[in-house]
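Complex 252.
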Amino acid sequence: LRRIGDEMQWVNVVSQAFEAHRFRLYRQAKLPLLPRATDTQQYEILLRLSEEDGGVVSPSEFLPAAERYGLAPSFDRWVVRNLFAYLDTHPDDTASYAVNLSGRSLGDPGTLPFILDELARHDFAAARISFEITETAAIDNLDECERLILTLQARGIHFALDDFGKGHSSFGYLKRLPADTLKIDGDFVRGLDRDREKLAIVKAMHTLAHELGKATVAEQVETEAELACLRKIGVDYVQGYFISPPEPLPLD
Ligand code: G
Ligand code: MN
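Predicted structure with guanosine-5'-monophosphate bound:
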């Protein structure tokens, strides 16, 4: 499966995986660096495709092809539907969960009614949900995106700007996108203990986020030395293989 180069073949694989129920929800913890009594456990939901031989495929392998063929919104909807059903049937799990929303979903006028409908059909506090959106995707669909954020924020849902610093970042959009959290892109985090430029960039992003009243998450923390730097900078949350690797959502 991993050697498939042809995009059309990926599209077939993905369509069949939907039918064969081979998509899985994984989760990866985000840890607060200054734990407070009020902090609930937080996770980001990650999609995985399980192979017949027991292997697991990351979306980075099939998502680019799927996005070009317009399949991304069906992944996002699958994730929302299945996560909400999980929360409904697992009242002992009181954690908060973040879901990634693709650019296509943000530009699709059907996304907001879909999410509102799924919220109405399930019984858990909406404040436990957040959506991660990339700035690039948000900019491409700015009006649709602003409307979606404002409507869902009114229901208590939170928003994070994902992969911040990558793509066409502009300070102007920070003002227009009312996200409460900024996720510092992993490219700046990996190796920041050995790279003065990365260190300076992460410090600047963190300071800017705090001045704007936003919390910061450092993505893709892979070493103890990186973690020590992030602690010193005062980043609010850390996420990555060194903190906690992605694990299957416990579905018993
Ligand atoms: O774009 P986003 O930040 O949502 O991407 C999340 C992806 O990053 C996941 O598929 C996850 O498996 C991967 N990931 C999580 N932790 C790490 C890490 O510490 N290092 C690297 N390189 N990737 C990570
Ligand atoms: Mn993310």
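The pocket of guanosine-5'-monophosphate (ligand 1) is lined by residues 28, 46, 58, 100, 162-163, 186, 219-222, 240-241, 246 (CB under 6 Å).
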